Amino acid sequence: MGIILVYDITDEKSFENIQNWMKSIKENASAGVQRLLLGNKCDMEAKRRVRKEQADQLAREHGIRFFETSAKSSTNVDEAFSSLARDILLKSGGRRSGNSHRPPGADLRACDKKSSSRCSLG
């Protein structure tokens, strides 16, 4: 079982609401449910209102992975879902698949359209 918490990097309020969702998950979800934090709209860097470092810190505090994504350009979408699926399989005793496994709270560099069309894990 997995839960994806998504906020809009251009909307501070959506990020602030993540704390409430974290509390709700802790109180109501099954113990050990895998969680993933996504900052969406990383293709809109000029309108950014939530610093990547803020979200990275929040993810580290809760021991979960963090990705910045763009649903519009598909940046990091496959990577995020694959990461969550891999974590769920590992937790349930399945075998590791894919080329790499990032630890919870893996760092994500902001989108840089000049050098790449994708955000990258660092």
Automatic annotation (TrEMBL):
Q: Which GO terms describe its cellular component?
A: membrane
Record region (Disordered): 92-122
Q: Which reaction does it catalyse?
A: GTP + H2O = GDP + phosphate + H(+)
User: What keywords appear on the UniProt entry?
Assistant: GTP-binding, Hydrolase, Lipoprotein, Nucleotide-binding, Prenylation
Q: Does the keyword Transit peptide apply?
A: no
UniProt xrefs under SUPFAM superfamilies: P-loop containing nucleoside triphosphate hydrolases
Instruction: Give the EC number(s) listed in the UniProt record.
Output: 3.6.5.2
Q: Where in the cell is it found?
A: Membrane
Task: Extract the Pfam families matched here.
Answer: Ras (PF00071)
Tell me the InterPro entries matching this sequence.
P-loop_NTPase, Small_GTPase, Small_GTPase_Rab
Q: Name one GO molecular function term.
A: G protein activity
Sequence similarity: Belongs to the small GTPase superfamily. Rab family.
- What's the protein here called? small monomeric GTPase
Record organism: Lynx canadensis (Canada lynx)
